[in-house]
Amino acid sequence: MTRYPVITAVANVLAHAPGLVRYGSKPLRDLAEDAALLPRLTERLRSYLDAVAYPPNQAYIGNRAPETLRALPRPWYQSADPVASPDGALGDLIDEPELYSLLKLSDRARLMQVDEALLARGTEGLVRRSLVSAAEMDRLAPATSEAIARVIDTGEAIPLLAGDRVVGSMTRGHEHDESLTANVLLENLVAKATGVLALRRLLRQVEPRLAAGEIEFVIAGSEEAVGDRYQRGGGNIAKAIAEGAGLEAATGFDVKSFCASTLYALFNAAALIHAGVFSRVAVVAGGSLAKLGMKYRAHVARSMPILEDVLAGIAILVERGTDADPVIRLDTLGMHTVGAGSSQQAVVEALVMAPLSKARYRLDDVDRYATEMHNPEITEPAGSGDVPTGNYRLIAALGALRGEIARDRIADFIAARGLPGYAPTQGHIASAVCYLGHALGAMRAGKMKRALFMAKGSLFLGRMTEAADGVSFIVEA
Amino acid sequence: MDLRGKRVLVIGERDGVNAPAIEACVRSAGADVLYAETLCFV
Which among A410, A407, A397 is positioned nearest to A345, based on CA atoms? Predict the structure, then answer.
């Protein structure tokens, strides 16, 4: 068989961002209508230690297998992980001062301010994690409280809070440009900085074998829309992230397809390598500010902590085929084509059955199916159900229709081949790719032969089509 | 339910039945679809 490009490293990072929850799309819209909601929201925000100890976050950063969540009593937010650590096998869970300091480091337009105390605290943490150098942080100038208050008072900037304290500000980029408002720029800067965090963490994982300058291309699959009034969403955040991670020899571009973006980016990376254009391509995705606090109303109503208080990031290194690492089976690509139809059955046929058919596998030949791994503890209180389990039921039901699974074995199939949801509702990262790091570890350890990754994108939300979208492929040891 | 002559607002769901599918059904039953939208909750 042709040796396809391989995945050699994956970094899964999280950034605790309670102060930014108010700038998530849903909280922001609600607070604009009723500012009195703010205390009810802030009293349900978690501490950093609680976010670290939250078992699904520990699973995401690689400190526990996602499968172990099944045995853990719900609610998981009351099952603190006794051996939790912010230093994960796959990546770091940084705290809010570290996040704000990373935003400051990533702000090439000098529109963000942070005060001295916060910058000192954040810098200490980032240096200790070997994610930044003291020299690059020394070049950043902190702002005085007066300077921060001044731009906020004029209405040109929005405040950045740590607890009740205003510790910084984000200023608009233009007086009249709706694509460069302070809120839009904060959203984009968050995506960039958490992408930089993931890519820098990835570099730590592959050094000393590989230096930053040896990565030739970066493809971003984030969910932001970087641009100005003449090219809203024009991009390119990939190159901005590459620059922020010191990839001097690389350039890059963005790939967009709603939540399927990152998985699309991954097969494009593999295709570019397979075609001989590049030897090493990094796929990267930063976090979505807009999705912070998306289900906060349900969490507040149930006196739960607001669980959508972390931003996620991911970076994946794809290289020319070696025998040691799992391949991206480009010959098993599942595509949801225009003519495929948008029923759930048609989507599963296109994204699961078609890749299996191409490889001449049956459902049971695949060890794990990674689908939309949204944490059900976040979605269920809002009436959105358990998304991964819903996907697995569909896959199994179709398997039963095709005679591959006995009807009374559907639950067994889900238990054996599925996974509990554990990812924060950061769509493009929750959609399958968050399991790549775990699969890579299991395949290298000889515990897994193959996994199928499938992502769906809700294109209809953009009002340009009624169609959905999706992409999938098999990764194999 | 007799949908003939009824005017219908369709709200579909990505993980359930999407709006185009509901629209096709209610149209075939004689309803007039005024609005159709599919929602995504994640």
Answer: A397
Look up the domain containing A139 and give its range. Answer: 6-319
Decide if A435 is inside a domain: yes
d(CA A426, CA A58): 16
Rounded to the nearest 5°, which phi and psi values hold at A374?
-60, 135
Mean pLDDT of chain A: 97
pLDDT digits (tens, 9 = 90+) for A133-173: 999 999 999 999 999 999 999 999 999 999 999 999 999 99
Q: How big is the A-B interface in CB pairs under 8 Å?
A: 41
Please name the residue that has the structure tokens 């102060």: A19
CB contact under 8 A, A382 and B41: yes
pLDDT in tens, A73-131: 999 999 999 999 999 999 999 999 999 999 999 999 999 999 999 999 999 999 999 99
pTM over 0.95: yes
Number of other residues whose CB lies within 10 A of the CB of residue B10: 22
Residue A1 lies in a domain: no
The alpha carbon of A347 is separated from its chain's Cα centroid by a whole number of angstroms, namely 23
Same domain, A353 and A437: yes
Distance (Å, whole) CA A327 – CA A266: 12
Residue B42 has its nearest CB partner, among A343, A387, A466, at: A387
CA distance B41 to chain A (A): 6
Q: Are A294 and A26 in contact (CB under 8 A)?
A: yes
Digit-coded pLDDT (tens) for A380-394? 999 999 999 999 999
Among A281, A303, A319, the domain-final residue is A319
Answer whether A232's CB lies under 8 Å from A225's CB.
yes
Give how far the C-alpha of residue A469 lies from the chain's centroid of Cα atoms, to the nearest Å.
Answer: 19
Q: How many domains does chain A have?
A: 2
User: Is residue A382 located within the same domain as residue A420?
Assistant: yes
Inter-chain touch A342–B18, beta carbons under 8 Å:
yes
Alpha carbon distance A93, A85 (integer Å): 8
ipTM for the complex? Answer: 0.88
Tell whether A341 and A309 lie within a shared domain.
no
Q: Are residues A383 and A262 in the same domain?
A: no
Same domain, A137 and A110: yes
Token code pair at residue A104: 């400051």
